[in-house]
Amino acid sequence: MKDRFNRNIDYLRISIIDRCNLRCIYCMPEEGIKNLLPHDEILSYEEILKIIEIGVILGITRIRITGGEPLLRKNVVHFIEKLSNIEGIKDIGMTTNGVLLKKFAKDLFMAGLKRVNISLDSLDEQKFKTITRVGNLKDVLEGIEEAYRVGLEPVKINVVVMRGINDDEVERFALWSKDVPYQIRFIEFMPVGVNSWKKELFISTEEIKKKIEAKTGKLIPVEMKKSGPAEYFTLEGSTGLLGFISPLTTHICIRCNRLRLTAEGKLRPCLFSDKEIDLKTLLRGGASEEEIKDVIKSTIQLKPQGMLEDVKPSRPMSTIGG
Ligand code: SAM
Ligand code: SF4
User: Fold this and answer.
1) Residue 190 has pLDDT above 60, yes or no
2) Which of 187, 246, 261, 268 to mutate to test the pocket of ligand 1 (most atoms within 8 A of CB)?
3) Could you tell me which CATH number the domain at 11-320 has?
4) Measured in angstroms, how far is the CA atom of residue 71 from the centroid of ligand 2?
5) DSSP H/E element including 212
6) In what order do the strands lie in the sheet with 91-96?
7) Pocket test for ligand 1, best of 118, 160, 202 (most atoms within 8 A of CB)
8) What is the number of the ligand 2 atom nearest to the C-alpha of 23?
9) Which residues, in sequence order, are CB contacts of 86 under 8 Å at separation 6+?
10) Could you tell me which of 161, 149, 175 has the C-alpha nearest to residue 239?
11) Spacing, Cα 248 to ligand 2 middle (Å)
12) pLDDT (tens digit per residue) in 227-237
């Protein structure tokens, strides 16, 4: 379905849980999220599947499962299996921190998951611990290898780059792409949710590219059919690809094709706006399929043309799903 700016909205990102087993400094406060949702406030799998089925009628064909940490939710494999049986869904991806991926990758693939995006902000064990506060790098690296081994392709690695924290590693990540068959994507640090964002920590894609090129030589552009918000490059003789996602310095909103559903059932037309439509209350209040459809349609029409100036969504990213 088209929105007011002629963008085709065919992609739904669904946060299935607000809890997480890491505490990334840019996403969560150290003590975790206050006011975690009681279990009965989180959409049940049946409710999520119902919303997806209605979304499919409106043209949703691609789903991304996220969180919090989606692999912490019970019976997630069974949920993916049910989801993959919905006619009209062409692509199911997941964004995960990878900590539990070694254990789940094969079953997820067998259940119908197509691919994974894995967050990995440092290749240095100590720094990885500092950024995630509690994580072990080894678990994530093993999860990444297993995901690739079982066929969850393309494996995409998401690196949120922060000045003075991990910007000294962008060259190392770039060189890693020479040896590994992954798409390593550098993401500009966004002012979302927790108060960790500071201008001094922000580093633009342009600067990251310059740092990489100074070390590795020219980045060679790669045309991708469906690249979403990322632009892709490779290095001479590389196995993998390098991607750049620049929400703050380019106009990625022009190509925005997505809606977001939070774990508590709020439908969000835009990551950068605090507008939310409460689907859970409607569903639990016995709204008809037609009524839910109308609400999804009108939410699509609420999508703004672009990121609004100076808007910092008040929800933590872990409860929106990225
Ligand atoms: N826990 C999973 C993970 O970390 O991949 C899924 C949820 S997490 C909120 C989704 C994505 O959002 C991750 O790739 C994370 O790096 C990204 N993210 C969180 N806060 C961000 C911020 N302030 N700026 C840019 N990306 C952010
Ligand atoms: Fe958890 Fe993902 Fe947020 Fe890190 S980025 S705290 S792994 S939800």
Assistant:
1) yes
2) 187
3) 3.20.20.70
4) 12
5) helix 205-216
6) 220-222, 230-234, 241-245, 183-188, 156-161, 115-119, 91-96, 62-66, 11-15, 258-261, 266-268, 277-278
7) 160
8) 6
9) 49, 52, 53, 56
10) 175
11) 20
12) 688 999 999 99
Confidence tier at 310 by pLDDT (50, 70, 90): low
Q: Where do the domains of the chain lie?
A: 11-320
| pLDDT for residue 312 is more than 70 | no
The residue assigned the tokens 């992609």 is 11
Of all ligands present, the nearest one to the C-alpha of 16 is: 1
Q: Is the CB of 69 under 6 A from ligand 2?
A: yes
Pocket test for ligand 2, best of 119, 128, 133, 189 (most atoms within 8 A of CB): 119
Amino acid at 266: K
CB 205 within 8 A of CB 250: yes
Please count the other Cβ atoms lying within 10 Å of the Cβ belonging to residue 108: 26
Mean pLDDT for the stretch of residues 184-197: 87
pLDDT digits (tens, 9 = 90+) for 29-63: 888 888 889 999 999 999 999 999 999 999 999 99
* CB atoms near residue 312 (< 10 Å): 12
CB count, 10 Å around CB of 298? 12
Q: Residues 144, 157: contact at Cβ < 8 Å? A: yes
